[in-house]
Specification:
The protein is of the alpha+beta class and 388 residues long. It has twelve helices and 13 strands.
Amino acid sequence: MSVDPAQIVDDFRKAFDGRIPHLVARAPGRINLIGEHTDYHDGFVLPAAINREVLVAASPRHDRALRVLATAYNERVTIALDALHPTGRNRWHDYIAGTAWALTNAGYELVGADVVIRSDVPIGAGLSSSAALEMAVARALCAISEVSWDALPMAKLARKAENAFVGVGCGIMDQVASGAGVAGHALLLDCRSLAVDPIAIPAGLSIIVMDTGIRRSLGTTEYDTRRKACNGALDAARRRHPDVRTLRDVDPALLEAIRSELDVTAYRRVAHVVAENARPAQLAAAFAVGNYERAGDLVNASHTSLRDLYEVSSPELNFVTNLARRTSKCYGARMTGAGFGGSAIALVASEAAGAFAAEVSATYRAEGSAEGQFFTCHPADGASLLTV
């Protein structure tokens, strides 16, 4: 499923005196197949853009204002481009203002615009609705302002918007996946160099998103406490090896060498990062040879590590992943995203995808604590402009 461009054109007409938008930009949400909580340690990840997306309809203005309507909230705001200041308040329009702020601080000259936003990326579901919003807004503002588009530099600016303006400490993965996605592929991403290697998703494999219906906010969870525990371990690693830059540079041998300097919690956190950082390349290799059982084992191991070592799962995520694994034709399942709620994914034989989603969703809704939604996702292209 994706948003009908005709719908947002109609939204724009109703919002702005019957005018047709100058352009419509889109940017997708994402799943992360594996490599969770490694991106902000400069590690490796394997995300894929998906066919749930944010659409932004826009027309230029002659002043320095963004007049924005978000259909999800039926709320309008006006953002002054000459009065952009970090808020740390994590409101929906702060992501828009932050994106404009990051572009402006990078030296790009933006013009004002009338803007309408429509999305079918579930908010708070671990599918990167915020990154999709940032990248769709960036794509629209660049086009309106005649700024050339390059997905990777723009992803870095979108991350800066979220980190420094909104105040959420995300890594770079979400923005790169939304900006540089390739249809039919996941992206093996090196979060240090930003080298991207598209990895074909095998034709016989479907990816089912299992949204638990439980919502979390990165700003109000223990996301940042994990980073702090890891930073303490990083100091210990650097005392042994001063060339260590991030936990990406810590291998199992070095982790064991510093184990006595870490408390139990810090050791568990780092043990997850070290093991998880190897899994994206391993999963890519399994895909390359069509080894679905190996792929499922890796996905299952990732969830176990996130549950027991990094401790970012939830009862609902554990329930739905266990439920998925007991269902026919499922190779493996894990939580995806930051955790504490949101979504899990399952790798399922393509011929069984529909039956799997129906069976698991029915059981989850009957036995779980929330409604949830379940759907097959298809790896999609990254941010782009649509024909109006």
